[in-house]
Amino acid sequence: MKISVIGGGYVGLVSAACLAQLGHWVELIEIDPDRARSISQGRPQIYEKGLEALLSKHLGERLHVSSIYDHIAESDLSFICVGTPEGEGGRPDLSMVQSACRSLGRSLRDKSSYHLVVMKSTVLPGTTEGLVIPAILKHSRREGDEIGFCMNPEFLREGRAVEDFMHPDRIVIGCNDPISGELAESVYRGIEAPVVRTEIKSAEMIKYASNAFLATKISFANELGNLCKALRIDAYEVMKGVGMDHRINPHFLNAGAGFGGSCFPKDLSALIALAQSLDEKPLILRSVQEVNERQPLRLLELLEGKIGRLKGKRIAVLGLAFKNDTDDIRESRSIPVIMKLKEEGADIVAYDPKAVDSMKRLIQDIEYCPTAADALRGADACIVMTEWPEFSELDEEFDRMRSRVIIEGRRILSCRDIEGICW
Ligand code: UDX
């Protein structure tokens, strides 16, 4: 099929590359000319395992990149993959969705044949039918039956988005008419996965409910982990036993410094805002959020318990990215830790294998080191904030510290003398 993908961020770019790999002809529309140029040269601005290989295989052949909407009418269907970052009051900012609908609608004005629009951006239930469909019909000046609409959420994890696209647990397709649903489902021919066909609003909600539940598992693991810590029990031992129940499963029960990233925090806030707008009380969701806000600061309580007041102490922060295998620091749990250390007057030195440049754009007035060993030299204590595999190799580097005080916010180290947040 001929597919146009709107938005060259990590969802749109990965989707475009994977759709080309499935045999489709794909045009990726990215309105930022610099980002479009780097993608078309096979140099994506995001790190995703396997992505560069797909780009070099398909660019110029099945995959084309453009900054304009001129050729969209030549495609059979369009995916909208623009960002919906957290906006006012926790609800998603829909400005990029509105802009994409306007441009897409206008580009369909002169198309005489049927066209399918598939929403992949994360939007609250009711948005596709309440905003996307009316906007596209208005700007295209076409009748409802000439343009089909579906909602097809993604469940991509940063760093593993190509793998998650090609091997999903399920494909969710929300549609209000069978023709659009069949056409959307046929896009994924070649991918082995159960297909959930539902209505549009349910598909929108499946995305939020999935992320909110995963975040809930993490905050549950952290709350139980804090209790285990108080009882001198290793939370990982407990969750190993809990996760063996097939109804629970072992995933997302790793206690630690909490969840970050561009999705869990914003999707949780959006769902809470939606519930409150409907006079519902999101008690569980608010607790998940509160546990996550408090969790990283528990590391500093542990730290003060070991070395006393933090003022003037040299603290090495190992790990800045919100998780390993990415340079993304959005909502990283290392940010509240660093901000609190600054507030306490600590002398902060930080290292991360990939995310130093990202963090420098947010926090300039701390010291950054090129290696973990450099960061540890002369430090009074060290806090590990990201589960980078290279940290599990560290041992004698900790001897360079003024005192070997190691507080672990992620279960990644394999050396002695470790104090874990929940172990
Ligand atoms: C998440 C969802 O997994 C994905 O399905 C959705 O499409 C987008 O949001 P992502 O944000 O990329 O993906 O990261 P993920 O791997 O889920 O981790 C999120 C955060 O939770 C990280 O900060 C990670 O350190 C933390 N985490 C994860 C835990 O603290 N404990 C766990 O057991 C798992």
Overview features:
423 residues, alpha/beta, N-(1-d-carboxylethyl)-l-norvaline Dehydrogenase, domain 2, Rossmann fold, 3 domains, 8-stranded mixed beta sheet, 6-stranded parallel beta sheet, 14 strands, binds uridine-5'-diphosphate-xylopyranose
Compose a concise summary of this entry.
40% of the residues lie in helices and 14% in strands.
Give an account of the 3D structure.
- The structure is a single chain.
- By secondary structure, the protein is of the alpha/beta class.
- It has 3 domains: 197 residues, NAD(P)-binding Rossmann-like Domain (Rossmann fold, 3-Layer(aba) Sandwich); 85 residues, N-(1-d-carboxylethyl)-l-norvaline Dehydrogenase, domain 2; 124 residues, 3-Layer(aba) Sandwich (Rossmann fold), CATH 3.40.50.720.
- An 8-stranded mixed β-sheet has the order 3-2-1-4-5-6-7-8, sandwiched between helices.
- The longest helix is centred in the middle third of the chain and has 31 residues.
- The model has no long low-confidence stretch (mean pLDDT 96).
- The structure holds uridine-5'-diphosphate-xylopyranose (UDX).
